[in-house]
Specification:
With 242 residues, this protein is an alpha+beta fold. 31% of the residues lie in helices and 30% in strands. The protein has six helices and 13 strands. It has helices at residues 2-19, 34-51, 105-108, 160-168, 178-186, 216-233; strands at residues 26-32, 55-61, 75-80, 90-103, 125-127, 134-140, 146-151, 155-157, 174-177, 191-193, 197-198, 200-208, 239-240. Strands 1, 2, 3, 4, 9, 10, 12 and 13 form an eight-stranded mixed sheet that branches. A three-stranded antiparallel sheet has the order 7-6-11, with no helix packed on it. Helix 2 links the parallel strand 1 and strand 2 (55-61). Helix 2 crosses helix 6. The longest helix has 18 residues, at 2-19. The protein is elongated, with a radius of gyration of 21 Å. The mean pLDDT is 89.
């Protein structure tokens, strides 16, 4: 226990010294889901690396809820669909993302879905492998009405990327972030089903250790990610500011 205190003091002193440097530098370890990296985070990190050439980034692309301390991660980026749990870590809410229902044209076979009651007439794709019940909570944009849709998934996957590719391959209706499928909808690769309804809402969060004397490079990257995503929220559909 005494040795641990000494090590903590040394790390704190090192971090304070690093803060005195005017240019962020060093290695930052980040975890992030694959689809979020591709459609939301990639450009922000690339811009950061170009702005600070002495910074190194190590990415772990995973939807697994990592243990920041145990897994030795500086910043975990995630989407949370439930209330934030109590934690000794800092959990920072950044911005909300909205979801929509989509399907490849071959799934609908020319049919037009006019009501949410018709959704279960088609094969569906579920997120998560350990669930007993699968469903979507739809919210109407105009009157805020909410309905629950329960379904038996034709295919299920533990990662949102798997759900996305299954939808693109024509395996069923899927609930996906609008930011992920926006271009596919415009190009006709996916059909936006019931566009007057929102199928989910997630909170993008940054999770990191609460350490005194946090490294300058980590602080700067957190600022970049928060500011970048909130700026996009003012310009792009699929985000909702908090």
């Amino acid at each position: 226990e005494e040795c641990a205190k000494v090590i903590a003091q040394v790390e704190c002193a090192k971090n304070v010294l690093l803060q005195q440097r005017t240019e962020p530098q060093g290695l930052v370890k980040i975890s992030c889901p694959l689809l979020m990296m591709r459609f939301q985070i990639r450009e922000l990190i690339n811009h950061f690396l170009k702005a600070y050439p002495k910074v190194e980034i190590e990415l772990e692309l995973t939807s697994r809820r990592v243990d920041v301390l145990y897994d030795d991660i500086d910043i975990a980026i995630r989407t949370n669909f439930e209330m934030t749990e109590d934690s000794s870590l800092i959990v920072r809410d950044v911005i909300k993302t909205t979801h929509c229902l989509v399907a490849a044209p071959e799934v609908l076979q020319g049919q037009h879905i006019e009501s949410h009651q018709q959704l279960t007439d088609f094969p569906c794709i579920g997120l998560g492998n350990q669930k007993q019940d699968y469903g979507w909570i739809l919210r109407n944009y105009e009157n805020n009405q909410k309905v629950n849709i329960n379904f038996n998934p034709r295919m299920r996957c533990n990662d949102l990327a798997g759900v996305y590719y299954a939808a693109c391959d024509g395996l069923g209706i899927a609930d996906l972030p609008y930011l992920t499928v926006e271009e596919d909808i415009k190009q006709g690769k996916l059909i936006h089903i019931l566009p007057e309804w929102e199928s989910n809402e997630g909170m993008v969060q940054l999770v990191y250790a609460s350490r005194k004397g946090q490294r300058l490079v980590v602080e700067k990257l957190i600022e970049t990610l928060v500011g970048g995503m909130r700026s996009l929220g003012n310009m792009k559909k699929g985000y909702r500011l908090i």
